[in-house]
């Protein structure tokens, strides 16, 4: 597991991960194996992200992630997790982080960070107040996954397995269904690059939020961990001002990740592309399909770090269905996409409410 496998809801996502042998795992010291009740905490680069391990599961994690094993006689594990999730704890970590290009919180500094630990009973009450919000967020995430799976199943059935409505009576011409054609992908989409913002213009109090590679996760938009700025640069293209429902594609590093934007005042940084099309549901499903993901990674160049060129991607040949079938897919799947966006927005509201409670509880502004 790497930092990229941590979602914006502080959960694990193992859908895109690497593997080690059973022998490697068996030879690990127990303190390097995560157990239920442990907390994993990112300490390099995107530092300050805690994850609570709520069940026994065999996995390993990179050195950029620290493991904390709370003493159950002194502290409730979930309470420590919520403490580390709080803004105050993040600011403490930010104050001790070292380095410029890739900031790091050392284990020594992490061990020396002081926290307030109320009585065991108060800890448990705080956990009982906050946990229902996390449960609701997780339930919503499950709904989103089911909706995504439904859209992908239909896409595969119609456009990969070619079992679309009326396929039994459809003629095949030159090896493809009649009305279909093999053509460049940019005949149905526009791939638009982000803008090269100046880091000197960033300000934590700014209105506008800068979307970078790290915010484009696999089917998940992370609108939280962003830099900000007060004003939109005058030379920035209009397409870099993002709207709800825009489709984003990562072009560097973890190439081929696709997500939908939700929320306001986001600006698109370079090395992320916006995918524009008149057929949003179809194009989103096309780029989320595993076959397309493989093709994009094969197209990417660069040994140390993969880079995907929007120009080369636009010239990739794909089998494009007839417009009538694409429009029918839009009719069926567009409501699914809208539901995904709605639930994501609801989740964001729940997280904001939870975080406000979290801050007040940790600062003793609310009696428990």
The ordered string of helix (H) and strand (E) elements is HEEEHHHHEEEEEEEEEEEEHHHEH
- Sheet with most strands: 4 strands, antiparallel
> What value does the Rg take, in angstroms?
23 Å
**What distance lies between the first and last C-alpha atoms, to the nearest angstrom?**
36 Å
* Mean pLDDT, all residues: 91
Measured by DSSP, the beta-strand proportion falls in 5-15%
- The shape, in one word, is globular
List the helices and strands and how they pair.
Elements: H1 22-26, E1 39-42, E2 50-52, E3 65-68, H2 77-85, H3 87-96, H4 107-112, H5 120-160, E4 172-173, E5 176-177, E6 181-184, E7 190-193, E8 208-211, E9 216-217, E10 220-221, E11 227-229, E12 247-250, E13 258-260, E14 266-268, E15 272-276, H6 280-288, H7 290-299, H8 310-314, E16 317-320, H9 323-362
Parallel strand pairs: 8-14
Antiparallel strand pairs: 1-2, 1-3, 4-5, 6-16, 7-15, 8-11, 9-10, 12-13, 12-15
Helix pairs in contact: 5-9
In short:
The chain is an alpha+beta fold. Helices cover 37% and strands 14% of the residues. The protein contains nine helices and 16 strands.
Write up what this structure looks like.
With 368 residues, the protein is an alpha+beta fold. Helix content is 37%, strand content 14%. It folds into three domains: 3-116, DNA methylase specificity domains (Adenine-n6-DNA-methyltransferase TaqI, Chain A, domain 2), CATH 3.90.220.20; 118-167 and 323-368, Helix Hairpins (Orthogonal Bundle); 181-320, DNA methylase specificity domains (Adenine-n6-DNA-methyltransferase TaqI, Chain A, domain 2), CATH 3.90.220.20. It has nine helices and 16 strands. The radius of gyration is 23 Å and the shape is globular. The two termini are 36 Å apart.
């Amino acid at each position: 597991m790497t930092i990229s496998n941590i979602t914006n809801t502080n959960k694990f996502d193992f859908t895109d991960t690497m593997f080690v042998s059973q022998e490697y795992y068996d030879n690990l010291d127990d303190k390097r194996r995560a157990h239920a009740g442990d907390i994993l905490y990112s300490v390099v680069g995107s530092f300050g992200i805690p994850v609570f391990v709520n069940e026994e599961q065999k996995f390993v994690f990179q050195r950029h992630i620290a493991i904390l094993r709370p003493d159950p006689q002194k502290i409730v594990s979930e309470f420590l997790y919520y403490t580390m999730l709080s803004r105050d704890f993040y600011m403490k970590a930010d104050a001790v982080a070292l380095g410029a290009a890739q900031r790091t919180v050392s284990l020594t500094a992490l061990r020396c960070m002081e926290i307030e630990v109320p009585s065991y009973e108060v800890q448990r009450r705080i956990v009982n107040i906050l946990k229902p919000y996390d449960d609701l967020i997780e339930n919503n995430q499950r709904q989103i996954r089911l909706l995504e799976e439904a859209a992908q199943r239909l896409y595969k059935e119609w456009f990969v397995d070619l079992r679309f409505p009326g396929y039994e009576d459809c003629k095949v011409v030159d090896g493809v269904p009649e009305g279909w054609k093999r053509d460049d992908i940019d005949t149905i989409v526009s791939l638009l690059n982000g803008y090269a913002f100046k880091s000197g213009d960033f300000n934590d109090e700014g209105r506008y939020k800068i979307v970078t590679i790290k915010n484009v996760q696999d089917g998940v938009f992370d609108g939280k961990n962003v830099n900000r700025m007060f004003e939109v640069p005058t030379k920035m293209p209009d397409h870099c001002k993002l709207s709800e429902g825009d489709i984003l594609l990562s072009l560097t590093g973890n190439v081929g990740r696709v997500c939908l934007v939700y929320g306001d005042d986001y600006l698109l940084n370079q090395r992320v592309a916006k995918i524009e099309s008149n057929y949003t549901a179809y194009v989103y499903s096309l780029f989320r399909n595993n076959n397309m993901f493989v093709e994009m990674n094969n197209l990417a160049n660069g040994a140390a770090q993969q880079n995907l060129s929007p120009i080369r991607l636009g010239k990739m040949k794909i089998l494009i269905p007839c417009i009538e079938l694409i429009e029918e897919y839009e009719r069926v799947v567009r409501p699914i996409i809208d539901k995904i966006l709605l639930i994501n927005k609801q989740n964001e509201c729940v997280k904001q409410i939870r975080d406000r409670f979290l801050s007040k509880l940790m600062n003793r502004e609310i009696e428990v």
